Amino acid sequence: MYTLELLLKGNPAPIVVHQKEEEAANRAYQSIVNALQSGSPQSLELTCDRTGKKVFLLTGELCGVQMTSKSGSASPMGTRPGFLAQLQS
Fold it and tell me: Is residue 84, in this structure, part of any structural domain at all?
């Protein structure tokens, strides 16, 4: 299972979307990065494979995205990987 965490401007809680396949997660991640790099707001619709829920958002409200893979081992001392761990400190 792969997790995409989308950070919104002015919102401390990320939007989390789960993808079962690595290829699907990479495609979704790359489409978000491309939309952010384009500089003009675009609309994105993502579907969570775990819950089946959909989210529709404007890239102008995004300030970051992180992709992680769910492994069998827990992260050290209960911290989350990547830049979100620093926000919680």
Answer: no
- Average pLDDT, integer, range 32-53: 91
pTM, rounded to two decimals: 0.75
Q: Does 89 fall in a domain? A: no
pLDDT for 70-81, tens place per residue? 765 555 444 455
Question: Count of domains in the chain?
Answer: 1
30-69 burial string, b = 16+ CB within 10 Å, else e? eebeebbeeeeebebebebeeeeeeeebebeebebbbbbe
Which structural domain range is residue 35 located in? 2-72
